[in-house]
Write a structure and sequence with these properties.
The chain is α+β, with helices and mostly antiparallel strands and 298 residues long. The chain contains five helices and 16 strands. The structure holds fe (ii) ion. Fe (ii) ion (FE2) binds next to strand 1 and strand 13. Fe (ii) ion binds next to strand 1 and strand 13.
Length: 298
């Protein structure tokens, strides 16, 4: 056998770990009209046309992920920011400029920060919109590459231990100019980031995130043994809220996780994404759909 002709691949690059997909975050909104203006008209995302199509909730598609927004009297605000990858920054800025007067008097704001555009929803949720970058985000053109949470000082190590030892999701601590953080791989080209800050952190208001995990019962067993399961939703889903240090049980941070098995009926459901640049004035036949990934380089 001619071994010189056999290509060598680093197979570990494709390892994901137990969490295979960060599908959605969930923050309540008190006004769907303002939510449509910000997330659909402003950010240019797509409302799920199949599920939650009424006034009680709204699911917004971002490539293969979503933001869920149940209608409730009080808005929830994620304590950190959500990152989105989306092409065409100039078009994004134009859309945000267009909705600005309609969202006057709310927390809405946006600014071009160079590396990303930071857009703030009418209730204060911060969204960072990055342009596609294969080195940073892989082949994603439209997607949710990470969600970052602000956490108290000296919690990153323990949070990293929780995800790697309990959830079995690869995690490590990084020291960066913006602060020390636990970085957790929760899907293909997807991370949760827990960034230490000495700034005050608002009280937890009940928002949540949802992940699909392959070994569904293993983390459940540990969480149940430690009294951390907060909801046995159904056969395919459970929830927990506290992130604890597996070394000593100390509660480090609270964010509800909706944990689903990959046998859940909603797993890998195809999501519709539009091309937000299309209008009735500049319409180009055949360009209605948004693409969420680039072709693989061979
Ligand atoms: Fe959810």
């Amino acid at each position: 056998m001619d071994t010189a002709a056999t290509p060598e691949f680093d197979r570990s690059i494709e390892d994901i770990g137990n969490s295979v997909w960060l599908e959605h975050t969930n923050t309540t909104v008190p006004d769907q009209v303002k939510a449509v203006l910000f997330y659909i008209t402003g950010l240019g995302l797509t409302r799920d046309p199949y599920i939650m199509t009424g006034l009680e909730n709204m699911w917004v598609n971002i490539g293969r992920s979503q933001i869920h927004m149940p209608a409730r009297p009080v808005a929830q605000v994620l304590r950190g920011h959500t990152a989105i990858v989306q092409p065409d920054r100039a078009a994004l800025l134009k859309r945000l400029e267009y909705v600005a007067p309609k969202l006057a008097g709310t927390h809405f704001a946006y600014k071009d920060c160079g590396d990303y555009v930071e857009a703030t929803c009418p209730w204060g949720n911060k969204i960072r919109v990055y342009e596609p970058d294969t080195k940073r985000f892989g082949d994603v053109i439209l997607g949710m590459p990470y969600v970052e949470f602000n956490v108290p000082p000296q919690t990153a190590e323990g949070i990293s231990r929780f995800y790697s030892q309990v959830i079995k999701a690869p995690a490590h601590v990084v020291d960066q100019p913006e602060g020390r953080a636990a970085r957790v791989k929760v899907g293909h080209n997807q991370h949760l980031v827990f960034r230490e800050t000495s700034d005050p952190i608002p009280e937890y208001d009940g928002h949540h995130l949802q992940i699909y995990i392959a070994d569904f019962s293993g983390p459940h067993r540990w969480l149940k043994e430690h009294g951390l399961i907060t909801e046995e939703s159904d056969q395919f889903q459970y929830r927990f809220k506290d992130i604890v240090d597996p070394q000593n049980g100390a509660v480090l941070y609270r964010i509800e996780h909706e944990v689903r098995s990959i046998t859940h009926p909603l797993y890998a459901r195809p999501l519709v994404n539009r091309n937000p640049v299309q209008t009735n004035r500049n319409y180009r036949p055949g360009y209605d759909s948004g693409y969420w990934s680039t072709p693989h380089e061979s």
